[in-house]
Amino acid sequence: MLVLFETPAGFALFKVLDEGKLNKVEDLSKEFLAADSARKVVSLKAFSKFENTAEALEAATKLLESTPSKGLRKFLRAHCDGETLGVADSKLGNAIKEKLKIDCIHNTSVMELLRGVRTQLTELISGLGAQDLAPMSLGLSHSLSRYKLKFSADKVDTMIVQAIGLLDDLDKELNTYAMRIREWYGWHFPELTRIVQDNIHYAKTVKLMGDRANAAKLDFSEILPEEVETELKEAAVISMGTEVNDLDLMNIKELCDQVLSLSEYRAQLYDYLKSRMNTVAPNLTALVGELVGARLIAHGGSLLNLAKQPGSTVQILGAEKALFRALKTKHSTPKYGLIYHASLVGQAAPKHKGKISRSLAAKAALAIRCDALGDDQDNSMGLENRAKLEARLRALEGKELGRSAGSAKGKPKIEVYDKDRKKGAGLITPAKLQSCSRFSSRANNKLGCS
């Protein structure tokens, strides 16, 4: 029996000299307390040294994936003919058995034997000292860390999480700065706040106009519509605002420059986020849009973590406080969280938002798994599911319209079945019963019957 041992310097094959000692797992560790006793249990049969760091890195990454590298396959073919091989990874053993037709063993005895070999590694392998093994281990670990970071699938998710977080921060800053401009310039021209509603247009107008006395001789056609421009010039003449000096206007214009530059950067960041989402999660983007999809990924931590969640969790993701408060107070649980801002939910009537959000969450969970674990990078699945959801929304609205259209009709007559009726007498309706009772009462009155 042979045992495969991986080291930072290369692969080693050890021959088990006394296989009977493997049956006593508890006493196996005592055999490796000293180098002399360890040599009586195993002996080095062959050693394949790595030529450079690149070969060591390739072998290490293959071992992490539980697959033998090209050098390991060549090494085992040369020295494992007709032998049984003990390995530390059962999946690696299955791969070796499938590709090389070598019987592999993975059990407690083999793991304890490998543990003992590790303690006496420098004594069992001649020419490999502890002072050489330590720098090799450190260099290989650094190379492996760089490789995993370079080819990590979560790395792109991190970019999306940071981008959507920065986008939300920019929105808050823009709103804060825009309100500060309105309050600051409102002392000079308070009527402008009512005339120009958009914050970016307001900042551009203030930067161009400066003092309100300049409004009459300026052209605002590139910023404002014609009717708004006319109203602005008329209001500037009769404004009730106070006068400001040039130093105040200079600081206000600098704040306007800040708002406009942040607005331009936000537009660039949104384009970047849109391209990233279409690349990383095209199906999720097709279903819920770039912003909602990015917020779902950020809330889940990564696309892979989000793929592990069921549709019911995706539906209420972002409404955890409301969910736990409802469970604590025994009220109705929320029907939607972040997914409420998706366009499909927004198109639905209030009474249908719960149904559409549930259906959308189920389709979104499938789209997330397809994006995270699938091989295809197109959005065909997301577009197909979106078409199905739009058809369901139309069906719900059509059913509601059909009910409201038929509600004006009279209620159907409820016919009472008479089990004692004669053949051919038909059913007795409440109207017939009422008319018969009236006729019998009139007849009794005429005849003087009580």
Describe this structure in words.
This is Nop domain-containing protein. The chain is mostly helical. It has three domains: 2-150, Nucleotidyltransferase, domain 5 (2-Layer Sandwich); 157-273, Orthogonal Bundle (Helix Hairpins), CATH 1.10.287.4070; 281-406, Nop domain (Serum Albumin, Chain A, Domain 1), CATH 1.10.246. 63% of the residues lie in helices and 5% in strands. It has helices at residues 25-28, 35-39, 53-64, 70-79, 90-100, 108-119, 121-124, 130-150, 154-186, 191-195, 199-209, 226-237, 246-280, 282-288, 290-300, 303-307, 311-315, 320-329, 343-347, 353-373, 380-406, 430-447, and strands at 2-6, 10-16, 42-49, 85-86, 104-105. A five-stranded mixed beta sheet has the order 3-2-1-4-5, with helices on both faces. β4, α5 and β5 form a beta-alpha-beta unit. The longest helix is centred in the middle third of the chain and has 35 residues, at 246-280. The radius of gyration is 39 Å and the shape is elongated. The model is unreliable at 404-414, 422-433 and 446-450 (pLDDT under 50).
CATH fold-level topology of the largest domain: Nucleotidyltransferase, domain 5
Broad shape = elongated
- Given as residue ranges, the uncertain stretches (5+ residues, pLDDT < 50) are 404-414, 422-433, 446-450
- The N- to C-terminal Cα distance equals 116 Å
The class by helix and strand makeup works out as mainly alpha
Strand content: 5-15%
The CATH class name of the largest domain reads Alpha Beta
User: Would you list the SSEs in sequence order as H and E?
Assistant: EEHHEHHEHEHHHHHHHHHHHHHHHHH
* Count of beta strands: 5
Helical residue percent? 55-70%
- Number of distinct helices: 22
**Average predicted local confidence, pLDDT:** 82
The main pleated sheet reads as: 5 strands, mixed
Radius of gyration: 39 Å
Q: If classified by CATH, what would the architecture of the largest domain be?
A: 2-Layer Sandwich
Count of individual domains: 3
InterPro entries: Nop56/Nop58, NOP58/56_N, Nop_C, Nop_dom, Nop_dom_sf, NOSIC
Domain Nop: 280-398
Function: Required for 60S ribosomal subunit biogenesis.
Protein name: Nop domain-containing protein
